[in-house]
Specification:
- Helix content is about 30%, strand content about 35%.
- The protein has one domain (about 1-170): Pnp Oxidase, Chain A, CATH 2.30.110.
- The longest helix is centred in the first third of the chain and has 14 residues, at about 10-25.
- With about 180 residues, the chain is α+β, with helices and mostly antiparallel strands.
- It has five helices and nine strands, in the order βαββββαββαααββ.
- The chain has helices spanning about 10-25, 60-70, 100-115, 115-120, 125-130, and strands at about 1-5, 25-30, 40-45, 45, 55, 70-80, 90-100, 135-150, 155-160.
- It is globular, with a radius of gyration of 16 Å.
C-alpha cells in the first residue's frame, strides 16, 4: 500500500481499511453499462487481507451484466448507524470480475466465515450456484479513499494505491507494500 495523499503510515492506513471493512456488512457497488449509464447496487460482502471484496449475485442482474462489458467498478463501505463525531468510510476503485474454480470456492469460504446464515442455507459452494442461482464476483481495488475520524485526522480523506495481487496469490498475500 502506498499513501498518495495524507501523511499517514501505510500500516495505519491498512489497519483503518481492515477495521472499516470488518465493521460493515453492506456495500454500495457502482458499475457502468454499455451505453455509459451508471448503475448502483447494494450487496453483502466479504473480504480478504489484500482488501479484495467479494459479493455474490445472479449473473443476470444489471450490475453483473455491466461487468461483463466493462470491469470498472467502485464501491463505498460504511456503517450507516455511526455517530457524526466518529465517521468512518471507504471508497474503493478498481476492477471486478466473476470468479470460477478455486477462487470462487475461496470467496464462498470467506462468506461462510462472515455470515452464519449462509453457513446454514448454502454450506457448500455448489449450494450458492444451484440453490441461489448466483456466482461470486471479486472487486480488486487499485485505489482506496479512507475517511476515518477514529484512527486518522478529522475531516481528511487519505488516498492510497493498492499493490496488484495476482488472484492465485490472494489467499496468502498480505497486499501491503511500501
Amino acid at each position: 500500500m502506498t499513501v498518495v495523499s495524507g501523511a499517514r503510515s501505510p500500516e495505519l492506513c491498512a489497519r483503518a481499511v481492515l477495521e472499516i471493512l470488518d465493521a460493515s456488512r453492506l456495500l454500495s457497488l457502482a458499475t457502468v453499462g454499455s451505453g455509459g449509464a451508471a448503475h448502483i447496487n447494494t450487496a453483502f460482502f466479504a473480504f480478504d487481507p489484500t482488501f479484495t471484496l467479494f459479493v455474490f449475485t445472479p449473473p443476470g442482474t444489471e450490475h453483473a451484466r455491466n461487468l461483463v462489458g466493462n470491469p470498472s467498478a467502485a464501491a463505498t463501505v460504511f456503517d450507516s448507524h455511526q455517530a457524526l463525531a466518529s465517521r468512518r468510510g471507504l471508497q474503493l476503485f478498481g476492477e471486478m470480475r466473476m470468479l470460477e474454480g478455486a477462487e470462487a470456492v475461496e470467496a464462498h469460504g470467506r462468506f461462510t466465515e462472515r455470515f452464519a446464515d449462509l453457513r446454514e442455507t448454502a454450506p457448500r459452494y455448489d449450494d450458492v450456484v444451484d440453490n441461489l442461482s448466483s456466482r461470486f464476483f471479486a472487486l480488486v481495488p487499485r485505489r482506496i479513499k479512507i475517511f476515518d475520524e477514529v484512527l486518522l485526522d478529522h475531516g481528511d480523506f487519505v488516498e492510497v494505491q493498492v499493490a496488484g495481487v495476482a488472484p492465485t496469490e490472494r489467499a496468502s498475500a498480505a497486499g501491503l507494500v511500501d
